[in-house]
Structure formats: structure tokens, C-alpha cells
Amino acid sequence: MLNNxxxxxxxxxxxxxxLDECIASILKSDYPVFEFLVIDNASTDxxxxxxxxxxxxxxxxxxxxxxxxxxxxxxxxxxxxxxxVFLVDDDNEVDPGMLRKLVNYLYAPENKNVGITxxxxxxxxxxxxxxxxxxxxxSMWNGRNFLCSKKIGEEEIFRDTKRxxxxxxxxxxxxxxxxxxxxxxxxxxxxxxxxxxxxxKELSAHVVLKAVIYHKQKxxxxxxxxxxxxxxxxxxxxxxxxxxxxxRYGRWYQQIAYLLFWQTLFNAYYLYVLIFKTRKxxxxxxxxxxxxxxxxxxxxxxxxxxxxxxxxxxxxxxxx
Length: 320
Prior knowledge:
- The radius of gyration is 19 Å and the shape is globular.
- With 320 residues, the protein is of the alpha/beta class.
- The chain folds into two domains: 6-215, Spore Coat Polysaccharide Biosynthesis Protein SpsA, Chain A, CATH 3.90.550; 223-313, no CATH class.
- It has helices at 16-27, 47-54, 69-79, 98-106, 172-178, 190-200, 223-226, 232-249, 252-278, 281-300, 306-313; strands at 6-12, 35-41, 59-63, 84-89, 92-94, 114-123, 131-133, 136-138, 145-147, 158-160, 167-171, 204-215.
- Strands 1, 2, 3, 4, 5, 6, 7, 10, 11 and 12 form a ten-stranded mixed beta sheet that branches. A two-stranded antiparallel ribbon has the order 8-9.
- A hairpin with a 7-residue loop joins strand 6 and strand 7.
């Protein structure tokens, strides 16, 4: 019987109701939660008051302003007291056996080189049995997000993955070896950057296919929302971060193929959507700024300080 101490850290921003449901589901887990943190990203909807009133045993950590998802992950990583920390977004509900299965797999004697475990992500609304994510990675050739098959074989136990968004269990030894997340990413692809750094240290991230979490995924109605560009900051990040990841981890010939062909193709399509479908000037300007900083990174290997992205979020306090 394993007795590893688990810290849970829920990241939230202006989603009081779904946070309430997330916390309640985690507290029903059949594995004990040693420490429970809520990292609040400058909520103004009564989130802090709800947490303090309904869950007095939960430690609330508040940011004075929206600092981004990867920054909040680092807050939890720097202060947790357990043997491992489960980082999870607020728009999820967990299966009661999820934590136990993730912990048991992570600390199994044969999995010493597994630094992170993540659950199989299923759709919460409409069809809970629908697989949302069972692992994946970004292609170093073209920047596309290649997802693992959503068909799960009966004999499958795990899948190796480089994408660990939404919900992630990290052992303390992994953090000691791999350090913190790069908060200059702000959100998108910060998880894959972390895993690829782990891989260079011969550590892996595995999807534990019997461990299940339900994601409250909102289906997008507009072309821009379907691409993830829900606000100017998101448009900026999507224009920039894919290039940063490929320049960091792609081979020189993959970088050339991406920069000379695929990046141009992606940008042409995204700008078409922004200019002719979304028709919001601030989105287009933000995307062009992201593209400029992507190319600047190619030559300088430097990103703007986190404050640059934070400036874009001040009127979008629900951004993580």
C-alpha cells in the first residue's frame, strides 16, 4: 500500500461555480489529499469568498493580477509540501479513483523514469465517454498538434506523451531535476516545453489510461474560437509559442522546413480567419505582434518579459 502524500493545486480565474464542482469532486477521491491549494488568478466574481466559506481546509493563494497559467503552476510547484503535486484546471471533475491510479503508477518500482503521470481526459458534457485527449505532441516539422488515437485498446495501460495540459501529477524528484515551468510561455505549450526538457534528462510523461478526468470543454461557435483565439492575448500566444517550441527542440532541418513553409501556411490561414471572419482589429494586431516576436526569437533566443503578455490580459481577467 503506497502512502505518498499528494498536494492538489487547482488553478482558477473567475469561474466560481465550476471551481466549486471541481473541489467537491476531488474531495470525493478514494486517495487522501494531504494538502489542497487553490491558486486564484485575480478573480473578481466572489471566488475567494466561496473557497474560504465552503472549504476552510483549502489553502487559498491569490494573485493581485492575472499572471497566466504557467506562472500559477510555478506558484504551486514552489510551495507544495507533499511528495507530489497534482496541477489541475478548475473546469474539470475527477473520477473518484483517478488520484489513486495516477499515484500508484507514478511510484511503481518499474516506473522510476516516469516523472509525470496524467489522466485520460474525457468530455463532461453531452457524451462523457468521448475521449478529448489521450496524449500527443507538437510536430517539429510543421507545428501541428498530433494527438494520440482516441481509441483505447483493452490491453493498453499507458501512453507516452509530450502534451500534459489540463491535469498533471508531478513527483518532487522531477521538479528537483527539471526545475520550474517557463512562465514566459504564459499558457499554451508551456506543458510540452517542460516535458521535452524532462525527456532530455531521460524522464518521461505517461498517460495512465485507467485514470479518468472529465473536462468541461465548451464548444466554440466562431472560427477564431475554434482555433483557440478567444481574446487578443490568446491570439498573441498562439502566433508565437509554436515557433518558440520548434526552435528550442526541433532539428535544424525541421526548423527550416517549418519556417520556410509551414509557418507561412499557418499564418496565412490564421490571419484570414482574424481579418475576414473575426473582424476584430485588436485580435489581428495581437497576432501580428506574436508573429514578430516569434521571428525575433529565431535570431535572439529571447522572449519579452511576462509583463508584456500580462498587459494584454488586464481587460480579460478570466484568461488562464
